[in-house]
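Input for the complex:
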Amino acid sequence: MNEESLREKEGSKTPVSFIEQFIIDDLKEGKNNRRIHTRFPPEPNGYLHIGHAKAICLDFGMAQKYGGKCNLRFDDTNPVKEEVEYIDSIKEDIHWLGFDWEELEFYASDYFGKLFDFAVDLIRRGLAYVDDQPAEVISAQKGTPSQPGVESPFRTRSITENLDLFERMNKGEFDEGSRVLRARIDMTSPNMHMRDPIIYRIIKAAHHRTGEAWKVYPMYDFAHGQSDYFEGVTHSLCTLEFEVHRPLYDWLIDQLKKDDYRPRQIEFNRLNLSYTMMSKRRLLELVQEGKVSGWDDPRMPTLCGLRRRGYTPESIRRFIDLIGYTKFEAINDVSLLEHAVREDLNLRAPRVFGVLNPLKAIITNYPEGKVENVTIINNPEDESMGKREVPFSREVYIEQEDFMENPPHKFFRLAPGMEVRLKGAYIIKCTGVKKSENTNTIEEVYCTYDPDTRSGGHASEKKVKGTLHWVSAQHATDAEVRLYDRLFNHEDPAGQKEKDYREFLNPGSLKILKGCKLEPSLKSARPLDKFQFQRLGYFCVDYDSNEGSLVFNRTVPLRDTWARINK
RNA sequence: UGCUCCGUGGUGUAAUUGGCAACACGUCUGACUCUGGAUCAGAAAAGUUCAGGUUCGAGCCCUGACGGAGCAACCA
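Predicted:
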């Protein structure tokens, strides 16, 4: 980034995060040749969720804004936890979100050779040693956060012996767990991570990329910073829990670096969303235990889940923009995410008629067999989306909730003797109901219409309190509609000391409605097509859908002040 | 009990580096409306965890409390 364009960025009034400020300062000071280079480093052990989206937007976003590059690097240092299946999904999700790493696709496993050489170098300089003690002993010697550790009896082993042992560890001569390589730093450090951290362990599982080539694998701390260094990364952005790792990150870079260049680790707050849970391990449990239908269950906070639910990448990026990056571990309200989709879909989603809980209304004075096409505006927010014709006839479906025999005060819908407009068509008046003999439930309502009130017609200015959506019964197409609510009924389901998160699963998080009636134009809708069902919410065609049997997911309901009043 | 980090309306973030605490979501009014949506206009809501100190002046600097989070995988 040159000085001129940097000054330009500075001139803009929009506040920048503390991270962006660091980047600006580093650029101004001329660090690393005025270069910015970031990386997004997922471990391929699960699907990306919206928390990763926060990191992706930062990593790719900063590089983009300041004329830099962003690498996609798979942090694949633990062959027993990682699978190729995840790599493809991760790439797909990043692209879907709207970012591109171009040719910069890397793997920590690409550096196993260099990392091994660096470890050997540390041994030669007396900065690493092979420890023969079992895990429990090493762990006990580490001390506790408030008590210093004690040194391993193997700490003073000769360089020659260490070199020999480390080579043989990698040849597979020793069992898993029998020996590790440790950095020799300081067993009394107040920082636990500096107490001779383990940097290599023996794992005899096949790696998805390097196969059987290695028997020893580097730990996260020994791979991450060095990978940054090898790739020329300048700003290594990660979440707050790695803050205490930074001294080790810097220590290792100090041993590795040969000139002025050095990557800098900066930590920000991870995303916590109310009523949801972000831990990959627990999300995997939900999938494995069948609590959800899969990683892409529309109730999951995964990117594939949100996509299936009907969220747009724009809305997710917008949400992340709204919450910002700080060092305060906050719980962000899901309603802000919902606001972001509504804001986006309001501008883009065509409005259609869909009746979720149908009730047949018969317009007794409308000629039998007659069909009129009424013209409906596709999106009042965007004239360019045009208009369409919707068939109207003597029998229509309306929403059960839109009719009450004995309505309360301020009920602006249909009730005996009351008038409402059927949107885009006529004003109707309820004249009676038909109830079932035994259960007393309402089966049909009878109405009359006023032929002068057709929308756009000469007497169409007549005002009524309510406007209902409707679908012509003989033209309707049936559909299944899946309604979603929050997966958990606790604000912080995973953060409760005494209780397992499973106890907070919301039993009503999925409601399946069958026999919903949709306007005929929806027959040709394809998976992921998004609509606003007028007066109800935003809906998206599910993958399970096909021309013969439509399936819709409710992304989010519309704001509903009437429902709020009646709570 | 050690170390590291963090405390600003209900929630999440700002405050151009010490100068009238601002924005968004949410909430509540009112207008408009053939979506109880959207849009528009407005309101309530924090004196910045607390106590000292420096200063003409502190959310910002200093000291000390209090509160929260993280750190003791051969996970990342």
